């Protein structure tokens, strides 16, 4: 295979975009381990005056990811995130006005490999979220696993993510007077194993916890589809029943997160690497589904609202797919 190298005369802005995305990818793949290594190093070499105060503080701060987190507007406004957004680029599209006196659950689809669209739109100040949805604050819910790593959790929380636990979602949706949005990537880790270019398989049929919590809090449901999310990476072929998929699914059940074997382009060449492809992401926010607060919803009420949500999600996809180059015969597959 002939390697296609990037030309030498690439504009500085594009080089900075590549650097911004590179640090983001490496943060997800390596930063947690590096932070854990720092703690181990401090303990091994008895730098007690550093690790004892931090671990003591960590003990008292352990619940913060379930209590709204600790976002930093300074971190969210780093110039690096503007270059990150422009690399793909990432776009946020509104189809309906949202009332800032109401709380919402955004169901984000699809998961993709690294959920770049969700991060770019809801964890940085360089999307047009504030202009499109004034008076609203979005909280991206991610796996609790990420907040169990010392030091890394501080960096992650600074961008705005919080835990995806029921307690955390309830905290966000309990704000009196509204104005909060829980952004939940509903397909979860399981769906990332099906994040292949050109595929639109969503793991949602058995995901009903978000519906129950929406009913409990009276939070409106909003389907969100991120066109282009699955185009950023390729994965090693892992069809259902293959040995690789079996191993991945077993590891996912043990560890709580999936390990997709993904690849795309490199830093200085376009043939192979862990850098995502420069493919545009269009995150389309759909019509809100009104939800009447029901403190003790019945299974029938949960099922009815779940069906309504899936219908609205399918409508959103069908209405907008043509704008983003998806063939007319392609449709969503719910699993």
Give a written overview of the molecule.
This protein is an alpha/beta fold. Helices cover 40% and strands 14% of the residues. It has one domain. α7 links the parallel β3 and β4. It is an enzyme of class 2 (transferase). Keywords: Acyltransferase, Endoplasmic reticulum, Glycerol metabolism, Glycoprotein, Lipid biosynthesis, Lipid metabolism, Membrane, Transferase, Transmembrane, Transmembrane helix. This is Acyltransferase. Pathway: Glycerolipid metabolism; triacylglycerol biosynthesis; Lipid metabolism.
Number of self-contained structural domains: 1
User: Largest sheet at a glance?
Assistant: 7 strands, mixed
Q: Please compute the radius of gyration using only Cα atoms.
A: 20 Å
Q: What are the low-pLDDT stretches, counting only 5+ consecutive residues below 50?
A: none
- What's the overall average pLDDT, rounded? 95
SSE order in H/E notation?
HHHHEEHHEHEHEHEHEEHEEHE
Oligomer: single chain
Given helix and strand content, the structural type is alpha/beta
Kindly estimate the percentage of residues that lie in beta strands according to DSSP. 5-15%
Q: Give the total of beta strands.
A: 11
Q: How many H/I helices?
A: 12
Which percent range fits the helix content? 40-55%
Order of strands, widest sheet: 1-10-7-2-5-3-4
In whole angstroms, the N-to-C terminal distance is 37 Å
Shape: globular
């Amino acid at each position: 295979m002939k390697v296609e190298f990037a030309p030498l005369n690439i504009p500085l802005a594009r080089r900075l975009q590549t650097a911004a995305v590179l640090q983001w990818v490496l943060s997800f793949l390596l930063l947690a381990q590096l932070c854990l290594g720092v703690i181990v190093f401090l303990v091994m070499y008895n730098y007690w005056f550093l690790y004892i105060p931090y671990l003591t503080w960590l003990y008292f701060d352990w619940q913060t990811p379930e209590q709204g987190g600790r976002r930093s507007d300074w971190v969210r406004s780093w110039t690096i995130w503007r270059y990150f957004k422009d690399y793909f680029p990432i776009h946020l599209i509104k189809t309906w006005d949202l009332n800032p006196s109401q709380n919402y659950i955004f169901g984000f689809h699809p998961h993709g490999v690294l959920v770049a669209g969700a991060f770019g739109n809801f964890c940085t100040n360089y999307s047009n979220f504030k202009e499109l949805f004034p008076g609203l604050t979005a909280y991206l819910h991610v796996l609790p696993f990420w907040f169990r790593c010392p030091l890394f959790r501080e960096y992650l929380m600074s961008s705005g993510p919080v835990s995806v636990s029921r307690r955390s979602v309830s905290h966000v949706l309990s704000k009196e007077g509204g104005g909060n949005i829980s952004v939940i990537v509903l397909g979860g880790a399981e769906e990332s194993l099906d994040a292949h270019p050109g595929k639109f398989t969503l793991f949602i049929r058995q995901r009903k916890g978000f519906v129950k919590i929406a009913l409990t809090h009276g939070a409106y449901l909003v389907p969100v589809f991120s066109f282009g999310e699955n185009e950023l990476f390729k994965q090693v072929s892992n069809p259902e029943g293959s040995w690789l998929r079996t191993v991945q699914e077993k590891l996912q059940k043990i560890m709580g997160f999936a390990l997709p074997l993904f690849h795309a382009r490199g830093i200085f060449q376009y043939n192979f690497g862990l850098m995502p492809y420069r493919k545009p992401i269009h995150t389309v926010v759909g019509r809100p589904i009104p939800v009447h607060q029901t403190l003790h919803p019945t299974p029938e009420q949960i099922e009815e609202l779940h069906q309504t949500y899936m219908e609205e999600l399918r409508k959103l996809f069908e209405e907008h797919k043509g704008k983003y180059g998806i063939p007319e015969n392609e449709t969503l597959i719910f699993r």
